[in-house]
Amino acid sequence: MDHDNDKKRLHEDSDNSEIKKHKPLDVLSEDGPLTQKDVVYFKKEAIWRQMRSYKQKCTLLTRDLNDIKSNYESNERKINVLDSWYESIINLFGVKKESNVELNETILIQLTNVPIGDLDALLEKRRAQLLTILSPIIENSKLSNIDKSDVLEKIEVLNAEVATLKSENNTLSKLKSQFESKVEDLQAQLLTLVKDNDRRSSKTLQRIDESLTNGSDVKEEASETVKSEVNKDTTVKNENSVDNEEFERISSEIEELKSDNRLLKESMNQINTNYDKVVKENLQLSDKLENLNENDLINSVSYQELAAHNKQLNESVNNLQKINDTTVNKLNELENKQTNVKHLLDKELREENETLKQQLQKSENDLVRIRTARDELLSKQTILKADFENQTTNDELNKLNKVLNERINALESERHETGDNSKISELSKDELIQRINMLNSEIKEIEQAFQETRENSLSKLMSVTDQENMVKKLTIEKTKADQKYFASMRLKDSLSSENKILKTQINKSQELVSKLNDLEKSYLDKIEILTKSNNDFKIIRQSALQENSKLQESLRAIDVRKASLEKELSGMKDKYSDKVQENTSFTQELNEKNLMMGKLEHKLKSTESLLKKYKTNNTSSILQEDERQLEALRSIAKCSVCSKNWKDTAITVCGHVFCSGCTQERLAARLRRCPTCNKGFSANDLLSIHL
Predict the structure, then answer these.
(1) For residues 107 and 113, what is the distance between their CA atoms, to the nearest angstrom?
(2) What does the domain layout of the chain look like in residue ranges?
(3) Best-predicted range by mean pLDDT among 448-452, 577-581, 660-664?
(4) How far apart are CA 43 and CA 37, in angstroms?
């Protein structure tokens, strides 16, 4: 339906474009009563002012939105750069997950939001990678010999910094909220000032104000013209009216004189009665001042107030003294408790420190012993490896020796089998001798080689047996060393578990220390508050004593003043006669003024009676003009449909203004057309205004 209406509007605008170009602008009338065109002009200008205020709000919102967008874009660029840096760091270090390494989850902050999207998944991945890199580095960089005093000092410094930062944060948040509220107030004031400026510069409002002021002027001018016309008519019609006016004037003067006489008599009677009262009161006061008693002083209001104030001050001083004594006792008790707690904590910390140092020394000694045993075992292992290699070479030599012996035996058997006596007999004696010598030399060489090989084999066998014995001994020592190693590892595990327990105890003790530090700070704050209150009480006591002394001095001054007043009384009696004379002069002046007032009142009554006469003759035309102007103003401000409610909703399609109730009723009844021009509108075309 709204889409069809928009189409109709576009069609109508396109058809009537040429007519709108030649259509003259609306003009506000400058004088005379307000017309219907002036009312329409007034409505349009009100809508224009409201649209300008909406535009200003929109510009402010767009400016804020642009600032937020620029901040968002800069933050997104920074996040992308930081992500690339972290990715390059992770790639440089290389992420390799190890099963033995425990991730320290307290290093990096976890994500707080529950729904995990793409960005949250990426951040979780980066966090896991950084934890795998940082946790082993932090574990390796932890020192075993940590000084507790340094740790406690650092904790105290950090706690102090945290407290200061919290206080600064609270103050800054309060300042921020105050500045935000001030900025909102200033924006609202600026908008109201802009609206007021628009209303001041609007022609229609100036025209209405002029019409309202001109209405009163018109009434006065009309009354004056009526008077002049009446006078003219009376002079033309009847010349005897002058005599009537003179008669009325004389009668009014006589009445004025009578009223003046009556006022003079009343004022004289009042003056006489007042004079008698004043004389009596003066005599009574003089008698009282001459004969002042203690009862009069006690019954005096100032004396009672001073006495009550003195009592209150004494009671407050006593109460403050009691409170001071109780606070001093509490302070002493708190100081004693604080010293006892400090001594206990120092004792416990020293004992725990000594036990930890002893356990650490034991573990270091055991570690040195285990390392020496390990080094010995490694050296023996290298020796055994070398001996094992020598044994393999000996086995190979023995195999070679066996092969050579077998070869010699085979050659000898062949020699015996192939040796023919016929050949030997064929040889000569010299050849036989040479051959025998050669054989003897060969036999000697063979025997020598055999002996050498035999000695080598025997020495090798001896060394092998020695090595086997050594291996057996070393295996026994190795088993012993393994047992010692396993025992030391068990001891190491127990020490590591004890170390963890001690670490947890140290953490608990540190938490207790931090809690005790907080308690100490709170106690110190309380002590400071109590000392301040004690000082305040002392100051109050001193001030009370000073006030008491001042009151005593004031009482003495009152006694002195009493004597001086008695002296002044005689002087006052002398002055009384002067005052009586002044009183008579004042009474005369007052009587004269009363006479003047009576005359003026009588003139006012006479003028009012004349005005009533003139108003009864010619006031119908003025009243009709006033009614017309009032109806015009009502038509501007009241709804033309129901004529009950004020106009507060404008239809932006045609510019007509009605009340919100009538527009909503028409929308609910699906009568979506303007009652005056019959143009279609929707709920989006309504605009709330303030006339």
Answers:
(1) 19
(2) 149-191, 299-415+428-611
(3) 660-664
(4) 10
